[in-house]
Amino acid sequence: MQKKKKHSLSSKQRILEASAELIAVNGYAAVGIRKIAEKAGVNISMISYYFGSKIGILKSIMEDYNKEVFAIFFELRNKDLGLENGTKYFVKQMVELIKRKENICKVAMLEIPLDVPEISEHKLKLKKENHKIMKGSLRKYFKIFDKTEGLIMGPLFMSMVFSNFLFITPSKDFIDIKLDDKFYDKYAETISNVMLYGLIGYKKNNKNKK
Question: Whole-model pTM above 0.85?
């Protein structure tokens, strides 16, 4: 069944998914083109045709992740959900993204070699493209107008959402918890509440200081 699913994907998509899986497990530096080709079931020439190089694959993974996150923030900005429902919507959508594309997310979050100029420049380009839409969403729902607060809160929210596969997932072989849909629903609910009420407490504390 798994084999049938694998070959129903396009060669380009198989290369992308195989690369993300290998890099997520072994790290970017440890994965070569030959390993990727073998995992994807394609010739090395196909990788060169679609991506040019391993850096090209990594750039495509970054673009895939960036496109997904952009869509979430775009929808959030264009909805009028209020603080509580907006927070829950954001977290739920991000958790669903992790469930669908865990390896893509993990590579984009953890395996970007910023000492490679082509990669660091590409990451900066993608950030610039999404900056306005993300900033607009944060301001609308979380009322963050101070630049310093925005710089701190954005990565804080993202790291909270991604904490599961950064810390729990590597231990899933020996923890006594089934990482199924029920777990992820509870996960999204818990993160939403911590984020929401932590932010409310933070704003209240700052208001009392003034």
Answer: no
